[in-house]
Amino acid sequence: MEDKDEILLKDFFRENRQEIADDGFSRRVMNRLPERRIWIVSQLLTALTVVLSMGVFIYFGGVNLLGGTLREVFQNFTLGGSLDTFSGTEPWTIGVVALVLLYMGYGKLANLPE
Amino acid sequence: MEQLSDIALVTQVLLTHNNRAFDKLVKKYQSPIRRFFLNQTCGDKALSDDLAQDTFLKAYTNLASFRNLASFSTWLYRIAYNVFYDYLRSVKETDDLDNVQVAALTSEQDDYGQRSDIHQALHTLKDIERTCITLFYMEELSIDKISSITGCPTGTVKSHLSRGKEKMAKYLKQNGYGR
Prior knowledge:
Number of strands of chain B: 0
CATH topology of the largest domain in chain B: Rna Polymerase Sigma Factor, Chain: A
Distance between the termini of chain A: 51 Å
Oligomer: heterodimer
CATH superfamily of the largest domain in chain B: RNA polymerase sigma factor, region 2, helix turn helix motif
Radius of gyration of chain A: 30 Å
Distance between the termini of chain B: 41 Å
Structural class of chain B: mainly alpha
Order of helices and strands of chain B: HHHHHHHHH
Largest sheet of chain A: none
Number of helices of chain B: 9
Largest interface: A-B, 30 and 39 residues
Helix content of chain B: over 70%
Radius of gyration of chain B: 17 Å
């Protein structure tokens, strides 16, 4: 049989038990996750690298070179070329590439903010 | 069933870095963890939220060490307990602990951190007694789970509970409860 003090305390704690509303707490926690900070830094580094690479590419005449190559490919394709570009590639290679792309896509989607 | 869904969420975080799964865990456990700290700090809302944030960040960075030997909630309470006692130790090194408790009593309170009878009553207990009493009566955890969380043998937990109960009952009776 429970003593009077036990009953007193159980009733007291039951009456004083409160559910605390989130009020942005979980958002603050999610914003402070360490990986998120690393992710932001990596995104900034990626953007910086892309901008620098594009600058170097344009500076050394990459645009003209790319235009010439594309023109050449287009001419080869229309003047007797065929769609056997991937004929030398083994099917399992394409399968692995597709799997990796799917996994990366899922990872991106899973981490999109709600 | 609840334990299964927690494990599923933990697995998703670990394997696919799915942060939404961790967000679900934070939303699910924010209330009991913040309530735990609110009771340990005798109603200091700002401090409770800071310590609760630290708890979830530590849980996230150490998620791989969750081996499912205990339930996720027990594991989380264990981290919360360590965060709180690390905080007490750090304060003891720089200041007298009594000053911290006085600061907690006089700090600003708002709606859920309102200075209430429960925090006054809990203030009469020693830290470890307060931890055991709130985990047992407020969170309704078993003595075995409290033992896992605090790292104390079950006999010691029972002693803390007995002493804490005696002190609290005395305080409550003096303040008009239980008549």
